[in-house]
């Protein structure tokens, strides 16, 4: 079989199209793996392909597929307008006509609400939902402004636009299972009413740079909600109080400004995964993690990322009863010059832990620039538990990202080995420096800069000997670049 240079379709030497003889289900499986513009272009290949894109049961219409291949940054307004014009035509083609082959079981729609295009797409979408063409909607209302460039007025305006769209086309709520919103303020609309009373099928909510007016506390009390995933990215709320979300399984929050605890939990019996990421600024006073976890009973995976700044956790120990079911704990963004032994307090509170994941943060390019915003990095002063007998019999793997044979890292790993007799693997990983770190010279050098990741066998053997000297452990020690 040879490849046609024009369209990439396979032909045998006699010119027979081998792909077109495949059954519809196989061809639809192929089309389901490409973007909508590519799928539509297949219509011109032959009569055999002409009807296939309109048979797809899962459809993605993404406005970014209609932008220029080489996208400028920021994306120009005229390109956004042209992309929305194309998206509107494609949406009309797929949504305006009844489908003989059954409904669209899942529609992923990503669009800009600019230049009155909502008045074109909204009615199409509503009618398709009302007559049963669309059964499951994944909607993302995009905005191309960088977070740091957004003003309060712009966020209020975007909030007003989004509120107007939902108010004008309420049928959108009926089958909305996933919603992503960007750069808006919920000042002019009742967010809880829209998201938890109107969106009865909503399962996944992603908010980026969204906040309440005047940094108000957002209280969620939705006993009938099906929401299972809540993701917040740079959402500067006064606080988040999850009073009742019985189906919530995962909550991620990247960056908050609350000086103390950013959230609290009430009735969340299904919560299994929690991810908190934040670089503590001068305003952060820290909080006791057990206070945040009060009300949780089923968390098995937790990630805490400090992004190289001071810890926003206050010292504690036995109060962490919510760690009783924890299976994986990730502590990332720990400043390279910090002592790591404080993490043993969390280890002691998690008797059934299976995976312990540590990431050491070292970015010289940000050390001096961030001091005025984030303040002095103080070495953690937690009261360490006295070592008696091994108390982590279920731990199988320890991972250290950004490993260097520094005293504090060697001492930490040895302490974990002593506490985890069934430890099977210790993975020591190299962390690639960023471009800015590579460009700058380090003057004067910090103590950590004198140590490097052990790359050759002799250096690695030396590390292995340091770790296992006097410690009874059968763990494999793997060095990974």
TrEMBL record:
Q: Name one Pfam family in it.
A: LRR_At1g61320_AtMIF1
At1g61320/AtMIF1 LRR domain location, by residue? 173-438
Where on the tree of life does the source sit, at the highest rank?
Eukaryota
Q: Which InterPro entries match?
A: F-box-like_dom_sf, LRR_At1g61320_AtMIF1, LRR_dom_sf
Instruction: Tell me the PANTHER family matching this sequence.
Output: F-BOX DOMAIN-CONTAINING PROTEIN, OS07G0645701 PROTEIN
Designated name of the protein? At1g61320/AtMIF1 LRR domain-containing protein
